[in-house]
Amino acid sequence: MEEFIIQKEYQDWLSNLKNLKGLSPNTISAYKRDIKKFILFLRNYLGNDPSIEDFKRLNNNSFRGYLAEQKNLGNSNVSIARQISSLKSFFNYLIKIKKFNSSPILNLKGPKQKKSLPRPIIADLAIQVIKEAKNIDDEKWIGQRNQTILILLYGCGLRISEALNLNYSNFTNEDYLIIKGKGNKERIVPMMDYIRKSIMNYLEICPYEFTNDDPLFIGKRRKRLSPRIIQYALEKIRASLSLPETATPHALRHSFATHLLENGGDLRTIQELLGHSSLSTTQKYTKVENSQLLNIYTKTHPLAKNK
Fold first, then answer.
1. Residue 60 in contact with residue 2, Cβ under 8 Å?
2. Number of other residues whose CB lies within 10 A of the CB of residue 283
3. Which H, E and C letters describe the chain, residue by residue?
4. pLDDT by residue (tens digit) across 146-198?
5. Is the CB of residue 256 less than 8 Å from the CB of residue 159?
6. CB-based contacts of 85: which residues, under 8 Å, 6+ apart?
7. Residue 276 CA: distances (Å) to CA of 29, 71, 139, 191, 198
8. Which residues is 177 bridged to in the sheet?
9. What is the pLDDT at residue 251?
10. What is the pLDDT of residues 97-146, one digit of tens each?
């Protein structure tokens, strides 16, 4: 199956994928295979080569029928989830180029999988996610607000609840934030100048005045934000950048810890920054291998330096 009616849109979508940073060649190849399989399924289902109009008319049953067939062919839940991600990427692109306005695939959830720690996002892609946050809302102050919150997750390792629970009074002239974490335990989190400037930019362009007791991050009704607002913003970013569903707010916090460790940060410091009560939680959270711990140990211990 080399040629089909929507060949141009298909090739343009592939070119768009290849231009996005952070998507590996293997991921792009998998997406390509998934969409080809879906088009073949539609050929058999419709009895003709599917056109844009056929894609526009697809309903939930069409997609569920395809995914059921893939399940019957022995595909795992992980594979099914990836195929849904591929379909969402392709249909989002068709919507972006105005072939149609919406598709039920965008609301289709993947199969339940075993809960596991989020995968870290590679550094370049995490920065791309943060930059894209400004572009997904027409109101400039909301884009700046969303970007600032994501910066706090990736730049300070905050939980989304910790970022959204900040009050205006928590932002002072100091180069750190005092964070109230789980169990009301407080910890001090250093704040880079870049992060401070992002918060100041948000406060400057926000159309509302703040008092000390006000939430730092507010919505249009001046109420404290729900985590769902930021989750939804990140969903839009994922769609815009064709990212997998593993790119979540918590994955940015996870990436903060992983990237610190990869660049020489020690586990005890990362434990303090994350607000973990147990070092074993931090080790598990960052998926530290024994070989990596040994490498850090042999590079830093005095005996290793005097052999």
1. no
2. 17
3. CCCCCCHHHHHHHHHHHHHCCCCCHHHHHHHHHHHHHHHHHHHHHHCCCCCHHHHHHCCHHHHHHHHHHHHHCCCCHHHHHHHHHHHHHHHHHHHHCCCCCCCHHHHCCCCCCCCCCCCCCCHHHHHHHHHHHHHCCCCHHHHHHHHHHHHHHHHHCCCHHHHHCCEHHHCCCCCEEEEECHHHCEEEEECCHHHHHHHHHHHHHCCCCCCCCCECCECCCCCECCHHHHHHHHHHHHHHHCCCCCCCHHHHHHHHHHHHHHCCCCHHHHHHHHCCCCHHHHHHHCCCCHHHHHHHHHHHCHHHHCC
4. 999 999 999 888 999 999 999 999 998 888 889 988 777 888 888 889 999 99
5. no
6. 31, 110, 244, 245
7. 39, 39, 36, 19, 26
8. 189
9. 87
10. 999 999 999 988 877 766 556 677 888 888 999 999 998 888 999 999 99
Dihedrals phi, psi of 12, to nearest 5 degrees: -65, -40
Place of tokens 């870049």: 194
Both tokens assigned to 93: 């692109």
CA distances from 185 to 179, 188, 276 (A): 8, 10, 10
Under 8 Å between Cβ of 40 and 1: yes
Helices 249-262 and 267-274 pack at an angle, to 10 degrees, of 160
The predicted model scores a pTM of 0.57
End-to-end alpha-carbon separation of the chain, Å?
63
Closest CA to 202 of 260, 148, 278: 148
| Residues assigned a catalytic role | 159, 182, 250, 253, 276, 285
